[in-house]
Amino acid sequence: MSTTTVDLLPCxxxxxxxxxxxxxxxxxxxxxxxxxALPSDEDLLAVWRQMVIGRRFDAQATALTKQGxxxxxxxxxxxxxxxxxxxxxxxxxxxxxxxxRDSMALISRGLDPMEVLTLLxxxxxxxxxxxxxxxxxxxxxxxxxxxxxxGAGHGLARRGSxxxxxxxxxxxxxxxxxxHEGLNFxxxxxxxxxxxxxxxxxxxxxxxxxQSKAPSLxxxxxxxxxxxxxxxxxxxxxxxxxxxxxxxxxxxxxxxFLIEAHTYRLEAHTNADDATRYRQAEEVTQWSGRDPIxxxxxxxxxxxxxxxxxxxxxxxxxxxxxxxxxxxxxxxxEVAPLSLFEHVYxxxxxxxxxxxxxxxxxMEEVSA
Length: 368
Description:
By secondary structure, the protein is an alpha/beta fold.
């Protein structure tokens, strides 16, 4: 059966399972017909645990910038459900394409936090092995990873893999040409790519209403023939349910899927940004009351899946994780100047070899 516009349309309201108090709500009839299923308590408890650890890591990384151990850090506090749930549901064969704000997502996938923070420390372009981890380098230019993810999805399909490529995008990046090119390529070639837009309401300092007149960013997929959905990005249960459905859609050969998650960045854009210049404190306070961690904690406590003993254990685990990051980051990095010339090209050009020889000669002269 051919795809119709109705098939592509997102739900009129963002998909939600839990209200802001953590109370289970009735799923809308529209969302129910699309097969979104409430995740098990076991899965949600695992996501909650990782959000707690991720939040503590995020706070520690923010503190490290104030101590001069990191050059910059873009916090994702408030976007915890968007950072953790989609990545937690990935399989080993799947690929992940993150942005510069997605450090919490990377540690949620099991990457070494020291390797993740290498970029933000300024000592290497990418501290982890993208091929080994199936994780692309964190992307600083807006939306360029959308084209990469579409191509990776195409490659997975051509190899006969049932893997998917997950691409994180910010709301500001949907205004970039690469985002549209990525969606169009993915649609035309029917690639198993899931585009996940974290709509945190501000592209640095530009509010959403000044960059798009679309009723929802999820509607941007329709023009390209991409199945789309919008979800309450602070409801981890809904985020997990929708991304799982998107993965099923993509991996079964039905093509790409676009998700818009409505969330909020509680901290400034980075430690170099003054968010008070473009948003009101009342707005931040209002969104603080929609905390994804507290919402899921309340729900799991109500079902009995989360006990005081488990909560205490996870809090201690998060503190140990942060302490490990802090101790390792307080060690001075080992600088290898000649590594500057590695991985620029598959084979070094004559110019790079000449430059490397100059640096090597200077190092030998200093050490003589």
